[in-house]
Amino acid sequence: MTEFLELETQDAVRMPWNVLPGSKSEAAQCVIPVSAIYTPLKPLPNTPTLPYAPLRCRNCRSVLNPFSIVDFSATKIWICCFCLQRNHFPPSYQSISETNMPAELFPQYTTIEYETPSDKAAMTSPVFLFVIDTCVIEEEIGYLKSSLLQVLGTLPENCLIGLITFGTYVHVHELGFGQIPKVYVFKGSKEVSKDQVLEQMGFFANKPKPTTGVIAGVRDGLSQESISRFLLPASECEFTLNSILEELQRDPWPVPADHRAARCTGTALSVASHLLGICVPGSGARIMAFLGGPSTEGPGAIVSKILSEPIRSHKDLDKDSAPLFHKAVKFYEGLSKQLVHQGHVLDIFACALEQVGLAEIKVASEKTGGLVVLAESFGHSVFKDSLKQVFQSGGNDLGLSSNGIFEINCSKDMKVQGIIGPCASLDKVCFTNISAYLLSGFFRY
User: In three state form, how does the secondary structure of the chain look?
Assistant: First the structure.
């Protein structure tokens, strides 16, 4: 048993069986199916990082490993242990021998890491877009501001920060204009499209808009100056962001005594998704939504603004008698598809004594691998400690990562059934391999 625990520590893989069934009858008798739990973010301090790209099989794309059969003679070939394809070593491996093997052939390095100069150049700064609900009492806003101001001081200087606040309307704050507060406002009762965000936020104010193609990022027609108006490095926008948060107040629109506040959660999350899709597509970006009550306005609403109408209960959901439920779920399913396509994550911090509509919103968080934190108040220790651990670096942090690619290759005798976790298919699935976007590194796979 000790041997298997050592292998698990070395490779970050745990399986229910130590031996695979050798026939169909044996496989049918397995009460627990053959599976594996993999921890992609597990720290492996004794594992070296190789400064070159992995050597792959020309047939199945598997990587050279200690189980490959290697011919060190003049022919210099290796046989893939998955498909038995014979592959020639490239010129950079011509000096290898039984006494001079590359690190990926060492028996103790069944797990190894590669990092090429192009990988380093392609690395982008993490992006955090804060979406704050202002339809809460002043005391709750004070708790939230205090927690956010503490967290902002711990952020890496190179990470990009954005800010959206919402209530009756959605306010996108322009952090790149520090002289005076500058805000772009969207009506919360209407669904906002990507083209409307491009037009109203002036992304092409100084040059003509491209007539064809997808507009997303610097490569597709946007200037870095237009992007940096809304997403700035933490070191450059710290003063402006602190000033906005310190002056943040409750949503000013009056609420009748017999009504709920007009809270446009769905519109705010949609605008946040469009903004990230326009500015930083395919990057490790996270939308961090801080919600203090149910959505009552615009797409994704779960209850009307009339206070006499109760919020749907579990019994209503079981009986399918919640009139707004399916419409809201459909909206958030569309939002989740957009976030998955962009490679972005939705985190939800729901702090309220009443429901916030997590039953409807959870599909967007689950499919993107986001965090969900529930607490009674923004002043509760559950919320404050959870928020700190998201950004904390050290032994107690969550080890968050985003936008990776997870690929599995098997021998011809194995058939991949699927994958469980915050992943999205790359549409390259066949019987012996599976490829997927690894949208978040919080869960284990």
Answer: CHHHHHHHHHHCEECCCCCCCCCHHHHHCCCCCCCCEECCCCCCCCCCEECCCCCECCCCCCECCCCCEEECCCCCEEECCCCCCEEECCHHHCCCECCECCHHHCCCCCCCEECCHHHHHHCCCCEEEEEEECCCCHHHHHHHHHHHHHHHCCCCCCCEEEEEEECCEEEEECCCCCCCCCEEEEECCCCCCHHHHHHHCCCCCCCCCCCCCCCCCHHHCCCHHHHCCCCEEHHHHHHHHHHHHHCCCCCCCCCCCCECCCCCHHHHHHHHHHHHHHHCCCCCEEEEEEECCCCCCCCCCCCCCECCCCCCCHHHHHCCCCCCHHHHHHHHHHHHHHHHHHCCEEEEEEECCCCCCHHHHHHHHHHHCCCEEEECCCCCHHHHHHHHHHHCCCCCCCCCCEEEEEEEECCCCCCCCCCCCCEEECCCCCCCEEEEEEEECCCCC
**Closest by CA position to 445, among listed 401, 414, 391, 394:** 401
Architecture of domain 56-117: Roll (2.30)
Contact criterion met (CB below 8 Å) for 415 and 439: no
pLDDT beyond 60 at 269: yes
Dump pLDDT digits (tens) for 95-137: 888 888 999 999 888 888 888 877 665 667 789 999 999 999 9
What is 124-391's CATH superfamily?
Answer: von Willebrand factor, type A domain (3.40.50.410)
pLDDT, one tens digit per residue, over 394-423 is 555 556 777 777 788 777 777 777 787 777
β pairing state of 86-88 and 77-79: antiparallel
Q: Tokens 């990988």 appear where?
A: 119
- pLDDT at position 433: 59
Each domain of the chain, given as residue ranges in start order, spans: 56-117, 124-391
DSSP bridge pairs for 233: 160
Q: Which residues, 6+ apart, have CB-to-CB distance to 105 below 8 Å? A: 64, 65, 66, 68, 70
User: What sign has the CA pseudo-torsion 39, 42, 48, 49?
Assistant: positive
pTM of the predicted model, to two decimals?
A: 0.84
Half-sphere exposure (CA, 13 Å, Cβ side) for 173?
25
Which tokens sit at 22? 């050798």
Q: Can you tell me the distance from the alpha carbon of 276 to that of 278, in angstroms, rounded to the nearest whole number?
A: 5
Phi (first) and psi of residue 323, to 5 degrees: -65, -30
| Dist. CA 15–CA 24, nearest whole Å | 19
Q: Nearest to residue 226, comparing CAs of 273, 174, 182? A: 174
